[in-house]
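Fill in residues.
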């Protein structure tokens, strides 16, 4: 079968939601501290320039001065920068594109923007405060560490990690520059309380924005395969050692499992190991620089139109989301308690 005969739509109806207690608490802390902050750096993931926009931040940020930072540009194709720069300008927003891990020059632009603003107001010169917000795992803490290193040549101040949800509370102020004195506040990654579009949730999970056990990994892998084929990007065949592109995730798993030797006793395929390998290969950027969102003008306009209408959430969905969040919090509390209990019993 050739690429032109492959699926053109991805059928999946279930939405995936992840809004644990620390996020609800984080939102409250952000709101409480908003008044003492001069600038919001809203961080997004350049691989999913639209899906990493959390409309909840609109309510939190309000009219505060905002800088949009698209991080992880090293993993996204260059057209993301051109397109989103133009689209944000149209909407009166300033965007900066960064690679927090290996491009200090890109990160420095955030300091330059802060200095420019602090200079305008002498009152702010001695103390200019920035709050860094964004969805989980977009690289907020990595950016803060990079800024601190560039600004005052000091080491890590914020914990980072490949898994989402490393930062669990709003941090104390972290100094990143002297004269003007610029301080940053790190915040926990915040997900939308309810993601109404299943595809958006899959993209966020695929790029590492949700805990792995929240989403069904086979669905993530199947979606990734679908996207790679839709992009007509068959680079994955070479990377994974496949003879030809396929539209069938089970076929891909079987071939890949054999190739990497992910087999259980008796020669049965170790699906979990193979899935993890496939997802990790993508997340490490081995398939090339890919954008999972459609960035044609019509899709972008549609996204903003739907976002500005408040992503209509039915009363039922709203109630469902609240109940899911409550259940998640209760489960976390229970796990914490049983964890303490086990520690005491040791
Ligand atoms: N390739 C690439 N990886 C990055 C970049 N920035 C951060 N990372 C990686 O992305 C992962 C998440 O980074 P963090 O800085 O912990 O993300 P965070 O937004 O603070 O995460 P939460 O604690 O979930 O809010 C880590 O494995 C980082 O090494 C980047 O610009 N490029």
């Amino acid at each position: 079968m050739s690429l032109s005969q492959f699926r053109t739509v991805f059928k999946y109806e279930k939405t995936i939601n992840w809004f644990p207690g620390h996020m609800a608490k984080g939102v409250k802390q952000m709101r409480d501290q908003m008044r003492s902050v001069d600038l919001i750096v809203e961080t997004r993931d350049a691989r999913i320039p639209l899906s990493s926009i959390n409309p909840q931040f609109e309510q939190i940020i309000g009219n505060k001065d905002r800088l949009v930072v698209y991080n992880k540009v090293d993993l996204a194709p260059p057209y993301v920068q051109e397109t989103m720069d133009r689209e944000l300008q149209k909407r009166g927003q300033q965007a900066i594109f960064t690679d927090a891990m290996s491009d200090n020059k890109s990160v420095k632009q955030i300091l330059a923007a802060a200095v420019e603003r602090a200079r305008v107001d002498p009152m702010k010169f001695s103390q200019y405060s920035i709050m860094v917000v964004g969805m989980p795992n977009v690289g907020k803490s990595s950016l803060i560490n990079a800024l601190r290193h560039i600004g005052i040549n000091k080491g890590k101040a914020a914990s980072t990690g490949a898994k989402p949800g490393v930062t669990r509370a709003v941090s104390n102020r972290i100094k990143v520059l002297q004269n003007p004195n610029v301080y940053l506040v790190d915040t926990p990654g915040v997900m939308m309380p309810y993601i109404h579009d299943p595809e958006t949730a899959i993209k966020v999970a695929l790029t590492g924005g949700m805990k792995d056990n929240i989403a069904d990994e086979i669905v993530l892998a199947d979606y990734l395969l679908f996207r790679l084929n839709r992009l007509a990007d068959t680079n994955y065949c070479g990377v994974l050692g496949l003879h030809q592109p396929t539209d069938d995730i089970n076929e891909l798993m079987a071939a890949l499992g054999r190739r990497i030797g992910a087999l259980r006793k008796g020669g049965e395929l170790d699906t979990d190991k193979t899935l993890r390998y496939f997802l990790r290969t993508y997340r490490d950027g081995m398939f090339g620089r890919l954008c999972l969102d459609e960035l044609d003008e019509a899709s972008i306009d549609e996204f903003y139109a739907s976002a500005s209408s408040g992503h209509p959430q039915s009363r039922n969905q709203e109630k469902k989301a609240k109940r899911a969040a409550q259940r998640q919090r209760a489960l976390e509390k229970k796990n914490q308690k049983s964890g303490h209990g086990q520690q005491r019993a040791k």
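The CA atoms of residues 7 and 320 lie 31 Å apart.
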